[in-house]
Amino acid sequence: MSGDAFLLALFLVAVVNVSRYISTLKTLLAVMRECDPLLYQQVDGRGFFTSQGNVSKQIRLFHYIRSQQYQKHHDPVFIAKCVKVRKLFVLASTFLMVFFVSIFVVAYLGI
Prior knowledge:
Elements: H1 3-35, H2 37-42, H3 55-66, H4 76-109
Helix pairs in contact: 1-4
């Protein structure tokens, strides 16, 4: 197997996982709008995926999910979406790191 085919396969897997993560994040924001409007405003839900989005508010959602503060929430659907977003973030991040390390390994070893 060539290095190019290996990198292409890793890239495709990474793209699929990142798109799953973004899609799940969008559904989390939709659920959040219904069940917790205050949190939705705090994380800039309306402008989350726009170029005018407030990055500090987006980071607030990252810390909210990373520290698992959603465990105290009253809505089980919201909790399930947060768990899924957290798992997909870890998965997508791992695949992206493996992809970038693989680029350097393939380039360095000349596979």
